[in-house]
Amino acid sequence: MGTGNDKRAVVVGASSGIGREVALLLLERGYTVGVAARREDRLMELKDAYGDRVVVSAIDVTAQDAAQRLRELIGRLGGMDLYFHASGIGKQNRELKEDIELRTVETNGMGFTRMIGEAYRYFAEQGGGHIAAISSIAGTKGLGPAPSYSATKAMQNVYLQALEQQARQRGLKIRFTDIRPGFVDTALLDGDFHYPMMLKPKKVALDILKAIEHRRHVVVIDWKYRLLTALWSCLPRWVWRRIPL
Question: What is the pLDDT, as a whole number, of residue 1?
Answer without folding.
Answer: 44
